[in-house]
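Continuing from the previous page of notes. For each protein in this section, the sequence appears first, followed by its structure tokens. Read the first protein now.
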Amino acid sequence: MARFELENQKSGHNSSDLVKAVTCNPAAILGWGQYLGSLKPGAFADLLVVGGTGADPYDHLIDATEQDLRLVVVHGIPRYGIKNIMLRIHSDTQNDLETIVIGEEERSLYLYASGSSLNDLTFEQSRETLTNAMADLPAFLLSTKEENNRLKAMGIRVEQKFRIVLDNELVAPKTRTFDLSAMAAKAEVDWSKIVKSVELDRPEVDSPSYYERLKEQVNIDDGLR
């Protein structure tokens, strides 16, 4: 889409510029260029490998689909890829690979992370949990409240296990004060207006609903469709 729009605007930017815009350039802007955005000694080994050779490598990368994806390595650890490749390079004898199907082809996942509380949760289990919860959101909200109240009645402290931490939040000066009660009131949610259900998006493009949803997007140029 980005390449299509650049060509429409006759910007003069090419595929190499686009790839740099999502790799080495933002890393350099954030001051992380020593570790991220390029392959070099001392940097994190973050790799995305696609099949095929020939033509311009940057065009080839942008043209690649999920079926062309062969391997994903994050910080030197193979996390996703074609099953036979992952089996050859998987070195963790204590934790197995998880097999999933993408476009009728088997792929392997390795999601284990030392110290994570989610290591016993598989990708398929997480999808099932989300699908069930999103199929009846009011019921999920009610069951969550009931469970929290039950734990409180037993004297068990209910802790917030997950939260979003933004790395660009401003640190307030020590002399600045906030009216937290007013802020909480504004942030109060009217749960009676919660939507009944939301369909969980599939993780792959090669699904019956993907292109149907794409057709419904009014902000996509007809030439791109």
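Done with the first. The second protein uses the same format. Note its length before scrolling.
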Amino acid sequence: MSTPTAMPAAATLTLSPSVTEHIKLAFEQQKLSRPDIGSFESFLTTIADQDASAPLPLENETNHPISHYFISSSHNTYLTGNQLWSRSSTDAYKDVLKRGCRCIEIDVWDGGSSSSSSSSSSDNEGKDREEADVNNLASLVRRGLGRLRSRADSDVPAPAKVVSATDSPAADNEMMPTRWRTESGRDEPRVLHGYTATKEIPFRKVCEVIRDYAFRTTDLPLIVSLEVHCSPPQQEIMVEIMRDYWQQYLVPVPDEYSDTTPLPVLETLRKRILVKVKYSPPEKAASQKTPATKRSRAKSDTSASTDDDNGQADTSKKGKICAALGKLGIYTRSYHFHSLDQAEAEIPTHIFSLSEKKLMAMQEECHGALFKHNMKYLMRAYPKGTRVRSSNLDPAPFWRQGIQIVALNWQQMNAAMMLNEAMFAGTGGWVLKSQDYRIEQPDTAPPRRRRFDMSVKLLAAQGLNVDAKSPPTAYVKCELHVQSELRAQMPKDGKSKGGEWKRRSASKESCDPNFQGEALRFEGVEDADPELSFVRIKVMDDVSYQKDRLLGWACFRLDRFPRGLRLLRLKGEDAKANSAALLIESDLSYA
């Protein structure tokens, strides 16, 4: 029986017999055409080196305005699970920052006795309305559980139980969390998902973690997206805390700052924190609206802006952003979205935040205008409020509209997060858009696309499910995420189906399966933008009578897909490399 091959000291992976045998065969074949190939040991070391299967290098210039980049982004970063009753934790911020996320979100509410139903100044257009739908669903669940408990109590007498706020998603809304106080006894803002049973954390603790982890992985700038539900006094405390912890990182105000100030280039913002917050003009300016602004306000009657939803047209009410907080939003000033024709849409430093639902409607109404806007100005997309289990939209269709910040739920590893990992691998979380996405074309047409053929020959895998009592029934699934036609619209459910090509292998029952060169072929794939198309490879366990289990995965941008003989180091559901590896031989050719 063959024994595992012990690698030289430079390598860190012990290879299985079947993997070693395939590498030997490849070495002998290459030696026929390349006599100077060297020794088998050096060839083996090269193949087993984890850098050999890394995505191809990417030229990522940093001398462009920040609107010319895609940015790795997180939605409701503080949550560790679902959107209704999961725990909030500063560890969630540590995790995404260590993984290269460059736009994080903080939902901030009054500390103390103020409830999470206080007035809101959310800078996410439509988010409160969608969350209200979710909260209605949560309320129905709570009432249903309450009726079931009542029936049970009437049938079987039971001793009284002390209810804890952490017991279940059915915990009452009235059971508000404890106050956060400094040593002086002052109530301070807190971070939580409002109107839900999620557990809170102090805003101060979040700011401390951001200070400590913001630039551990990269020195490229971090955007902190604030969704503010605080009263003006609590907003002043927010500013005090942020300045206390982030003073050395906050972007300084330019000497001459106005509505015509251009966006800075990425290189000038290294080790800087940009605060994204809704902009409230000074009182005098607010009372003297321009005709264009008045037109925007008139259109907003049917929009889902927070102030309109909550009947807060009076800007002196609690929902207004105070001047001190608003001044922190220098290059990322958020405005309520009404239309792409509103006056603020031409301010270089503006940013609109729109839900996937709103963006899909806009795609049908003004496809070219949306794409054109995002060539010059920042935009953020976030998941619709009904994604209560922290599922995700497919980011690729939104990137193809030029949207720089596509905020995803990082709580679980799903297809969207795999694409996000592939998009930003080794980049520091900022990826320069292709020229077609930065420079306006004659008719604002989407970028040129290409036709290609691809094959993935499966040789062998190893280290699959090594801790299980029995070996898995392993198979490989390969998917292409490609826009299937020019001007293809974003799918109505936020998930692209028409652009997916799928192939799968036969199953092998083994922790170290030998796939014997089975080939997965994709021929005549058309209209592909290599920079926004993706190859996703998953090794699955074929489980009877239940959902197949993920054993490991790898994902690449099409233009960064490594070709030839590669030993792919697979990642697990935590996005970290595990003990699994897949030996493939791939080929990609463009017509």
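What the second structure shows: The radius of gyration is 26 Å. The CA atoms of residues 207 and 242 lie 6 Å apart. We return to this in next week's lecture.
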